[in-house]
Amino acid sequence: METKDQKKHRKKNSGPKAEKKKKRHLQDLQLGDEEDARKRNPKAFAVQSAVRMARSFHRTQDLKTKKHHIPVVDRTPLEPPPIVVVVMGPPKVGKSTLIQCLIRNFTRQKLTEIRGPVTIVSGKKRRLTIIECGCDINMMIDLAKVADLVLMLIDASFGFEMETFEFLNICQVHGFPKIMGVLTHLDSFKHNKQLKKTKKRLKHRFWTEVYPGAKLFYLSGMVHGEYQNQEIHNLGRFITVMKFRPLTWQTSHPYILADRMEDLTNPEDIRTNTKCDRKVSLYGYLRGAHLKNKSQVHIPGVGDFAVSDVSFLPDPCALPEQQKKRCLNEKEKLVYAPLSGVGGVLYDKDAVYVDLGGSHGFQESEVRPTHELVQSLISTHSTIDAKMASSRVTLFSDSKPLGSEDIDNQGLENSYSDDETEEGQDAEVTDKQYMSGKGIKRQKLETEEDFEVDLPAFADSDDDLERSSRDILESEAVREGGKPELLQTDDSSDSLNMEKSLTRKKATFTTSDSGHCTAEEAFASEDEPEGNSSLSTEEEDSENEEAIGKKFPKPSQVVSSQKLGSGNLIDETSDIEDLLKEEEDYKEENNYSTETSGALKWKEDLSRKAAEAFLRQQQTTPNLRKLIYGTVTEDNEEEDGDNGEELGGLFRVSQPASECKHKADSLDCSRFHVEAPHDWDLEEVMNSIRDCFVTGKWEEDKDAAKILAEDEELYGDFEDLETGDVHKGKPGPDTQIEDVEEEVKEEIDPSAEESAKKKHLDKKRKLKEMFDAEYDEGESTYFDDLKGEMQKQAQLNRAEFEDQDDEARVQYEGFRPGMYVRIEIENVPCEFVLNFDPHYPIILGGLGNSEGNVGYVQMRLKKHRWYKKILKSRDPIIFSVGWRRFQTIPLYYIEDHNGRQRLLKYTPQHMHCGATFWGPITPQGTGFLAVQSVSGSMPDFRIAATGVVLDLDKSIKIVKKLKLTGFPYKIFKNTSFIKVLAKFEGAVIRTVSGIRGQIKKALRAPEGAFRATFEDKLLMSDIVFMRTWYPVSIPAFYNPVTSLLKPVGEKDTWSGMRTTGQLRLAHGIKLKANKDSLYKPIVRQKKHFNSLHIPKALQKALPFKSKPKTQAKAGKTPKDRVRPAVIREPHERKILALLDALSTVHSEKMKKAKEQRHLHNKEHFKMKQKEEEEKLKRQKDLRKKLYRIQGQKERRNQKSSLKGPEEQLK
Amino acid sequence: MASQAHSLSYSGCNFLRQRLVLSTLSGRPVKIRKIRARDDNPGLRDFEASFIRLLDKVTNGSRIEINQTGTTLYYQPGLLYGGSMEHDCSVLRGIGYYLESLLCLAPFMKHPLRIVLRGVTNDQVDPSVDVLKATALPLLKQFGIDSESFELKVVRRGMPPGGGGEVFFSCPVRKVLKPIQLIDPGKIKRIRGMAYSVRVSPQMANRIVDSARSILNKFIPDIYIYTDHMKGINSGKSPGFGLSLVAETTNGTFLSAELASNPQGQGAAMLPEDLGRNCARLLLEEIYRGGCVDSTNQSLALLLMTLGQQDVSKVLLGPLSPYTIEFLRHLKSFFQIMFKIETKPCGEELKGGDKVLMTCVGIGFSNLSKTLK
C-alpha cells in the first residue's frame, strides 16, 4: 500500500475528544474553566457596582415575595365535604363513560345510568362528588361556581372546541378551580408521529389557557367500551391526592349541591290546585361556610328563597371510621347517588322506588345515634325516604283536621309506630330543631286539645317499646319548647283567676321597681313563668307532661332573674342545686301520683326519663343561655290576647298597660345601673376586688417573683467557657422535694410524677423557646408572623366547639361544612317540581347579609376579545354574578379624568369600561361574566364580557353629554345677543368654529335670549353651543334566569327580554335613518382663487423684503440696448479652435497623471501597513515570550516560598 | 325582582337604636309599631326623631316611613355612606346616645366618617363622651379599627338642659374586622379620670378630685384625675359639673364609671364631695363586675364580634346588662347568630363577681359599602 493514497488526518473540531484536547491545551496555557477563572482573576468577579448589586438583590427578593400568597385562616372542617368533580366536555367526547369508569374504579360497582351527582368514597380521607356537565351554558355557569376540580375532556381527534374555551373563561371569572385536562379519542390517530405532535400541540395550548405545567391526562383508547383500567386507576390516584387552594367566593358562602329532592306539599293542596306553590326538601352535603338556619339561599335557575328549616342527617356516604390500614375494604367503598337510584331510592316521574338491598348506603356502623333514648329504637335498615313516604300515607288515612305542624309531628310519630328505626332519630332531630326554632309560633297553633288528641293516640297502641319511644319524643318536644307551651296553656285555658294571679305577680314586680329600667323590670317577662309554675300545681294531675314542661323552665328563670336582678352571681350555683333538689322531690311526688293513678302506669317511665334528660341538659347548658335565647317574648301573643274584648264591635277595652308594654316603651339606655351597691367602706367588700389591681395577689404563672425564681432555676447552671468556672444555681426547694417524691413514692402518687414530668416539659419548652428566639432573631418576617397568627386562629376555631355535640354546635356556629343536611324550602314554584330534571344540578347558594337586596352595582367590564359584537348600553344582557344568573339592563360608562362618569353608547373594543346595572347586591371584588343569551347553541363564542364588581350604591352618577345650541341675532364687537339656549348665567359657551365665550345676562324680551361675550367677533352664521351634563337613569330591571323551571328537555331555551334590535328584526320594523347622517359621495369642487391684491398704500408702507416683487417681465430690450453679435474672422476662429484643442489635451494629461499618482499612493500605503503588521507581530511574540519567562519565574518563586516553611518544619 | 329580605317587626320604642342599627348593618327592613301608643303623648320623641335623621344622613337610599301620630316606624335601610357632616342632637338626650350607634356603624361606611355632633356632652342618663372616648375607642382598636384619623374630641362641653356642647368624631373604614380573644382582663395598673366643671366655680372640680381619690387610694396609688374647666363659648349653655373615671388594666382593658351633677333646676343640688365619692364607688362596682369590656360597651363588643370573619371570637364580660341581653336577642333575629355563654364563677381569687365568657363565630361580614379601586 502506498502512503500517498491515505487520507490526511483531520483534527477533530467538535465532539468529546476535541473538547478534551481543548481542555488540556487550555490547562497547558493555564487558562482553566469557570471556577478557575474566579480564582485566576478575582478582580473581575469582585463587586463592580453597588447599585447593580442592590438591584439584583431586590430582584431576587421580589421574585421570592411574589411566590407568597396572602395567608388565609384555614377553615376547612375536620371532615371535609366530598370534593366536587365536574366532568366537562363537548358532546360525544366520553364524559359519561369516564364517570362510569371512575366510579367502577373506586367502588367496584357499575352504574348504568348516571343522573345527577354521584358521591363516592375514594380514599381514607377523601370523598368525591362527580357530576357531569353538558353544553348548556346555564349548567356550565352553575357548575363552575361549585366545582373544586374540573376534568376537562378534550377530543384529541378534533382539538379544542368552543365549549371548552367558554368553560375555561367561566371558571376564570368565578374563581378558577383546579382544572385537569383529559385527552380522549387518541386511538383515532393512525400514525404515532401525528399523535405525538397533536398531544404536544394540545398540551401547549392547554397550558396557555390554564397555567404552564397544568396536568393533561391521556386516555389512549377504549377496550370493550371502557377506558383502560390502568389509565383510569392513575387518573383516580391523581384526583385522590390532589390539593386545592380555597376559592374566595366558595369559602365565604355556604352552598349545597343537592343530590336529592322531595316534594313535601300537602297532596290536598296539589289536588285542589295543581299549580300551587310547593314545599320541597333538598338534601346534600354542605360546603363552603357555615350555614345558619332561616338564612336566605339562592337557587340558580329558580330564585331566592328563605330556608324554612335545616336539619342534619347521618352521613349517607361516610368516610371509614378507623384510619389505620392502608386501603379501604370493600364495605367502605360506598357510593351514594339517589337521583341515579343508588343508595336506596330510585326516582321515577311520579313514584319512588325503594331498593332495600344491594347497597352499602345504610349500614349499622354508620348509624350514630345522638340520643341514647332513641338508640334502642334503631334497629331496621330501611331508609328515611321509605318511612317518609309511608308516613305520609298513614297520615292522611285518618285525616284529622289538625294544624300543619301537628300533622307533621303526628305523621312522624305514626311512622315510628310503623317501624321503629333509625329514622326515629333523624326525624326527631328535625322535629326538635323545628320546635326550638319556631317555639313560639308553634304554641299559637297548638292548643290544649291537641294534647288531648295526642294522648288517646298513645293509648290505643299496644307495643311497649313504641309507646315509650313516643313518650320520650313527646316529652322531649315538651322540654324543648318547654316554656312556650306553658305560656300557651295559660292562654288557652281562659280561667280568669289564673290571669289575675299572673297580673298580680307582675304588679308586685312593678311596684318593687325604683322607677328606672331595672334588671327585674327588663326580665319581667322571664318572671312570668314563676307565676305560672305556681299555677301549674292545679293542672298537674291531669296533664303530667305539661306540668313537667312547666317545671323545667322554672329553675333557670328563677335563678337568672335573681342573679341579674341583684347583680350578684355568687350564690347562683347553690341556688341551682337547691332547685334541682326541689325538682327531684317534685318528680318523686309525681311518680307517686302517677303510680297511684294506676291506669297511667306507662307514664312513670316517661317522667323519670324526661327528668333525667332535663338534668343532663341542665348540666350542659348554662342558664344564662336559656334566659337570653330561650324566652324571647313576642308581642304578637299579647295582641291575640288583647283582641278578645270588643264592645259593640266598635270600641275596644283598653287594658292597663301590661308589663311587656311597659318594657317596650321604657327608656332606651345602654348604661347598666347598679341596683344594690356594695358598701365599699367595709373591709371584706373591699377585699373582694383586691386582686383586680396590680397591687393584689398575682396568679401563679404571672407572679413576677415566682417567674424570676423559676428562671433562676432554669438558667442557674452555666459554665463560663473562658475561665472554665462552673456556676451552680441553687437547687430550688420544689425540685428537691420533687426529687424526693420521685424517688420515694413513684408508684404511690402518680400525680406527683405527672407534675414532675410537666415541670420537665416546661423546662424543655422554655429552653427551646429561648433557643428559637436566639436562633431566629430578626429572621421572622411580617409574613411569617401573619401566617402564625392565622394558624393560631384556625386552631382556635377547630378547638372551640369540638367537645360539644352537633346539636348544640349547629346553634352556635350554624351547620358546618361537611354535614349532610336536609333543607326545607317553601313557596317554590310548582314548575320546579313538575319539570324536575336530575341531570341539571340544583345548587343552593347561601347569601350573605343584604346580598338578597337590590341596588345599583358598578363594575369594571371588558368585552371579551373573542366575542364578535360590541355591546350596547340599555340592551338587556344576562349576567352571572355570585350565585345568580339574571338578565338586566346595564349602562356602560367611562370615567373622565375629573371623575365624571360619562355614558357610553357602546362598549369600547379593546378597553375596560364601567358598567352599572340595577340588580342584586354582590360583594365588591366578585367576578362576573355576561352572555347575551342562554338559549340555543351558537357556533360562536358566547361569553360577551367579563369583569369585576367595584362598588355598590343606592344612587348613580352617570351623565351624558347634552349640547344646547343657539344662534346669534345681534352681533357687536365681542358681545353678541343669542337666542334659544338655556340661560345659565356665567356658563361657558363656544361656537362651532372654536370661539369661546361666556353667558353674561339673560334677556327678557325674546324667550330664552341672553347676552354673551366672546373672545372674538361672531358671524351671523355661527352656531353657539353649550356643553351640559345630563344625569341618566337606569331602568330598574332585574330578571332572574329561571331556566330550571322550563320543561324537561327545554331547559336551555330560556329567553328573557329581547333587545330592541331583536324586536325590530322579529317585527320587520326598519329603523328610520336620519338623512343628515347618511354618507354621500364627496364631490370636490375645483376652487378658483382670485389673485392677491395689496392696496398701493399698504405696499408702500411695507418693508422692501415684504413688498410684492411682481415686476412685470422685462419686456423687449430696446434696440439701443441690444448688443450686436460678434462675428469672428476666419483667422481668429482658427486660433480659438487651436486653443480649445490644446486645453483639452492638457486637461486629459493632468487627469491621467492624477490617476497614476493615486494608484501609487495606494500601493505605498499597503506596503507600509504590511510592514507595520509584521512589526507588531514580532513585538507581540517577543512580549509573549518575555511574559512567559516572567510568569515561570514568578511561579518558581511562589513555589519556593510555599515550600520554604514546610522544609523548615521538616 | 330579588325578594327583599323579609322585614322584622317589633313594638315599643325601647331599644330603638339597636333595632335600627342592626337593621342597617344586616340590610333587613324593620317595622316598629306601637311607639308609646298608650302614652298621653304618643309617638316618637324629639331625640328619637333626631336619631332617625342622623341615620338618614349617614346612609344613602334609606326609606323611612312614619305614620301620622308617630307611633309606627318603617325603616328600610340603605347603604352606609359616611363623609363629612354635622348633626344637631336633641338636648333631651346626651350625645352619647347618638355616638353609641355611630360607633357601631362608622367602621362600615363608604367614606370615612367625620362628623360634628352638637348637644349635651355629659348628662346623667347616657354614657358621656369622655367615657366613650376612654373605653369605646380602645375597644374598637382591638378589632383593627385604627388609624391616625380615628379620634373623638370634645370641642365644647354642654350640660343639660341647655346643651351647647360640640363633639368631633372621625373614624376610618374597614372592610373586615379582626377576631378578638379577650379572656384575660389583666390587673388594673392605673386609674385616670376627668373632673369637669362648666359655668360653676373651678374649685368644684378640685373638690371632686380630692373626694374621689380618698376612696380609690386604698386600692392603687397610681391615680390621676384631670380637671377640666371650660370657659366662655366652650362651656355650653348650662352650669354643671361631673366626674368620669377610667381604670386601665395591664392587658388594655378599660373600665369606667361616671356621674354628673343634677341639671340646673332639677333635683336637689349636689355636693361635689358626694359626687366624687359616689363616682369612685361606682368605679369599684364596675371593677367588681369586671370583664374585659365595661358594662356600657358590652353590646358594641358583641356586635363587632358578630361582624367579624368566620373565626371564633371570645370575650370575657361582667354580668350582662339588660340592654346587652336584649341586644343578644336582636343579634339572633337579625344575624341568626347565637353566642356560647359560659358563666365563670369566681373562684378563690378576690376578683369581684362572676364573669361571663361569650364565644361566637363571626358571620363573615364584609363592608359592602366600601368601594373597590
Automatic annotation (TrEMBL), chain A:
GO terms for biological process: endonucleolytic cleavage of tricistronic rRNA transcript (SSU-rRNA, 5.8S rRNA, LSU-rRNA); maturation of SSU-rRNA from tricistronic rRNA transcript (SSU-rRNA, 5.8S rRNA, LSU-rRNA). Residues 1156-1176 have a biased composition (Basic and acidic residues). PROSITE patterns: G_BMS1 (PS51714). InterPro entries: AARP2CN, Bms1/Tsr1, Bms1_N, BMS1_TSR1_C, G_Bms1/Tsr1_dom, P-loop_NTPase. GO terms for molecular function: ATP binding; GTP binding; GTPase activity; U3 snoRNA binding. Its main location: nucleus. It is found in: Nucleus, Nucleolus. Residues 416-427, 537-546, 572-587 have a biased composition (Acidic residues). One of its GO terms (cellular component) is 90S preribosome. Keywords: ATP-binding, GTP-binding, Hydrolase, Nucleotide-binding, Nucleus, Phosphoprotein, Ribosome biogenesis. It catalyses: GTP + H2O = GDP + phosphate + H(+). Residues 80-245 form the Bms1-type G domain. Residues 1-25, 1177-1187 have a biased composition (Basic residues). Residues 1-42, 397-427, 476-602, 1150-1210 are annotated as: Disordered. Belongs to the TRAFAC class translation factor GTPase superfamily. Bms1-like GTPase family. BMS1 subfamily. This is Bms1-type G domain-containing protein. It comes from Bos mutus.
Automatic annotation (TrEMBL), chain B:
Keywords: Nucleus, Ribosome biogenesis. One of its GO terms (cellular component) is nucleolus. PROSITE patterns: RTC. Its main location: nucleus. It is found in: Nucleus, Nucleolus. Residues 10-341 form the RNA 3'-terminal phosphate cyclase domain. Pfam families: RTC, RTC_insert. Residues 184-287 form the RNA 3'-terminal phosphate cyclase insert domain. GO terms for molecular function: RNA endonuclease activity. GO terms for biological process: endonucleolytic cleavage of tricistronic rRNA transcript (SSU-rRNA, 5.8S rRNA, LSU-rRNA); ribosomal small subunit biogenesis. Belongs to the RNA 3'-terminal cyclase family. Type 2 subfamily. Part of the small subunit (SSU) processome, composed of more than 70 proteins and the RNA chaperone small nucleolar RNA (snoRNA) U3. Interacts with BMS1. PANTHER family: RNA 3' TERMINAL PHOSPHATE CYCLASE, RNA 3'-TERMINAL PHOSPHATE CYCLASE-LIKE PROTEIN. As part of the small subunit (SSU) processome, it plays a role in 40S-ribosomal-subunit biogenesis in the early pre-rRNA processing steps at sites A0, A1 and A2 that are required for proper maturation of the 18S RNA. Activates BMS1 by promoting GDP/GTP exchange. Does not have cyclase activity. This is RNA 3'-terminal phosphate cyclase-like protein.
